[in-house]
Amino acid sequence: MVGTLLIRFVESKKKCPPWNPLFTMAICIACFGIILVTLIVLGMKCQTNIKNYIYLWRVQSSRKKGYISLPEADDYQYHAFVVYCDSDRSWVHETFLGRMEQEEGVKLCIHHRDFDVGESITENIDKYLERSWKVVIIISNEFAKSEWCQWEVDVVQERRRRHGRDVVLLIMLESIDYKHMTRRLRTLLDSTNPIMYQRGLGEVLFWKAVTKSLRKPLGDPPTSILFLYAVESFNTNEKN
User: Fold this and answer.
1) Residue spans of alpha helices (H) in the chain
2) Smallest Cα–Cα separation from 58: which of 209, 163, 204?
3) In sequence order, what DSSP letters do the residues of 6-29 get, joined into one string?
4) What does the mean pLDDT of the chain come to?
5) H or E element in which residue 142 lies
6) Fewer CB within 10 Å, N- or C-terminus of the chain?
7) Does the pTM exceed 0.90?
8) CA–CA distance from 24 to each of 20, 21, 27, 172, 219 (Å)?
9) What Rg do the C-alpha atoms of the chain give, in angstroms?
10) Pfam families from the entry (predicted)?
């Protein structure tokens, strides 16, 4: 019809074929498949950020719950005692330490810097754990392979049994290989919500979650504290 004047146009008696419903179904299935694949790819790429968002949401929601007053950060010399392996020293000293102390004002106890010379490592750990409000455990595959770090995990677990689960902040620099997973480490991961570190995308969210966790009050005291509180109240009532 190119070049034909509109006044000479004659409507055709042929009708357009009806729309096949199978085309609609095929388009819907294709769109659903594209959306599903996109969500799966985003989930795999951003799973660290999703976990950190969930962790941050739990930290914020737990503030709304009441808790028995426990020691605050001002009662201690350090905000946190940092447990890490020597292979991760560069990240701890150059990245973590600089960000927390210089930008966030969080005082950390680092054994390479703060331990007393001449005393045994175990004595230093016991002394500076008592001077620290919380404990930060930085986990990697090298950490999982270290027997000494596994012993420190046992010490920290005892600290958590006395002061509650909020006293421990668990940071994972990488996913732990199955061959390096130990019973102690599995128990720690099952009982503590870790914060995943990811360079680049989501790094701002990671630092925000770490800062809020280190400044979060110790809430929901462990059973032992509740039991002692109940016994003390009972004895007081008996005397009265």
Assistant:
1) 21-45, 47-62, 89-90, 97, 111-114, 121-130, 141-145, 147-163, 183-191, 203-215, 223-239
2) 209
3) GGG----SPPPPPPPHHHHHHHHH
4) 77
5) helix 141-145
6) C
7) no
8) 7, 5, 5, 47, 55
9) 29
10) TIR
Identify residue 8 by its one-letter amino acid code. Answer: R
Tell me the pLDDT tens digit for each residue of 1-34.
Answer: 677 787 777 666 665 667 788 888 999 999 999 9
201, 121 in Cβ contact below 8 A? no
Task: Provide the pLDDT confidence category of residue 208 given band limits of 50, 70 and 90.
Answer: confident
Q: Tens of pLDDT along 221-239?
A: 443 333 333 334 434 444 4
**Residue closest to 108 by CA, chosen among 149, 169, 49, 166:** 169
Instruction: Choose among 175, 103, 108, 164: nearest CA to 136.
Output: 108
DSSP 2: T
